[in-house]
């Protein structure tokens, strides 16, 4: 665990003690520790990689009235605490390292957030935990809508505007990975024009990882992922 991960864990524990009390928080910490120990011994995950080609026409989803999409500055990062997503320390570290945080706000309150990575992106299945990205390719990560705002199309509207911004900045595609069993997220990215390109499965037994990448159809992203990730 790196320094920012430890800080995030401490931050989550402090938040838990404030909300649920010490006994319930200790039980939760023990349960999380057990889950983490089990994950370290055995882990199996399947993700679909999706790609959005920015060089061709794509669906243009419009932001519902009253919502504002904003690229977050340092002062906005604390707003993430109101969403079920990564902790503040990890978010600050990501932002300092150059990742973009985008927020959809409802009268100043966070309704949706997502991250855009360039050059490299965090991927558990990748060696060292980071996947280098192909040229002119951005990666969309950790999209999350606040539970009360789900099902209103905020994600697609935000991705649509972000895609326009990245295209104007010279990017030619956006990739993103979604857990195979995450139906709501798969539905949302497909409505926004992302196409499934590869299925990645990670099996980790003790500390040995096996990564398999299979194509949805032959394409350049699949070939790249297979070369970089398979082992
Ligand atoms: C994935 C996510 C960001 C989509 O955001 P969104 O703005 O709700 O997206 P949409 O409004 O387009 O809804 C997408 C699908 O979610 C499902 N959905 C609708 N209302 C929902 C609700 N209240 N709760 C959960 N899912 C709902 C529907 O299948 C919907 O598709 P449909 O509109 O064609 O029926 C959001 O569901 C979320 O935050 N999920 C939890 C975090 C997560 O899984 N992130 C993705 C990591 S890859």
Please explain how this structure is put together.
- 35% of the residues lie in helices and 32% in strands.
- By secondary structure, it is α+β, with helices and mostly antiparallel strands.
- The protein has one domain (3-229): Gcn5-related N-acetyltransferase (GNAT) (Aminopeptidase, 3-Layer(aba) Sandwich), CATH 3.40.630.
- Helix 4 (154-168) links the parallel strand 7 (137-145) and strand 8 (173-179).
- The longest helix is centred in the first third of the chain and has 20 residues, at 22-41.
- The radius of gyration is 18 Å and the shape is globular.
Summarize this entry quickly:
This protein is α+β, with helices and mostly antiparallel strands. It has 6 helices and 10 strands, in the order ααββαβββββαβαββα. The chain is globular.
Gyration radius (Cα, Å) is 18 Å
Number of helices: 6
Strand line-up across the major sheet: 2-3-4-7-8-1-9-10
CATH class identity: Alpha Beta
Sum up the structure in keywords:
231 residues; alpha+beta; Aminopeptidase; eight-stranded mixed beta sheet; two-stranded antiparallel ribbon; 6 helices; 10 strands; globular; binds coenzyme A
Structural topology:
Layout: H1 3-20, H2 22-41, E1 42-53, E2 67-71, H3 88-96, E3 100-106, E4 109-118, E5 120-122, E6 130-132, E7 137-145, H4 154-168, E8 173-179, H5 183-191, E9 195-205, E10 208-215, H6 220-229
Parallel strand pairs: 7-8
Antiparallel strand pairs: 1-8, 1-9, 2-3, 3-4, 4-7, 5-6, 9-10
Bound molecules: coenzyme A.
Coenzyme A binds at residues 143-145, 150-156, 178, 182, 184-185, 187-188, 191.
């Amino acid at each position: 665990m790196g320094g920012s991960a430890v800080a995030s864990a401490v931050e989550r524990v402090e938040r838990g003690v404030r909300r649920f009390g010490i006994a319930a928080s200790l039980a939760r910490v023990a349960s999380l520790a057990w889950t983490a120990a089990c994950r370290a011994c055995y882990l199996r995950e399947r993700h679909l990689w999706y790609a959005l080609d920015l060089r061709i026409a794509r669906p243009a989803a419009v932001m519902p009235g009253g919502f504002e999409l904003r690229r977050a500055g340092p002062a906005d990062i604390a707003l993430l605490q109101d969403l079920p997503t990564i902790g503040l320390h990890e978010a600050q570290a990501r932002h300092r390292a150059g990742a973009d945080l985008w927020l959809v706000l409802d009268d100043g309150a966070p309704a949706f957030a997502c991250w855009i990575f360039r050059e490299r992106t965090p991927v558990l299945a990748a060696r060292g935990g980071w996947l280098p990205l192909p040229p002119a390719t951005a990666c969309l990560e950790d999209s999350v809508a606040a539970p009360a705002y789900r099902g209103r199309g905020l994600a697609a509207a935000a991705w649509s505007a972000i895609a326009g911004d990245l295209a104007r900045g010279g990017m030619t595609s956006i990739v993103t990975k979604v857990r195979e069993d995450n139906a709501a997220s798969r539905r949302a990215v497909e409505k926004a024009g992302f196409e499934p390109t590869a299925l990645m499965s990670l099996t980790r037994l003790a500390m040995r990882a096996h990564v398999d990448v299979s194509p949805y159809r032959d394409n350049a992203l699949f070939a790249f992922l297979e070369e970089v990730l398979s082992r």
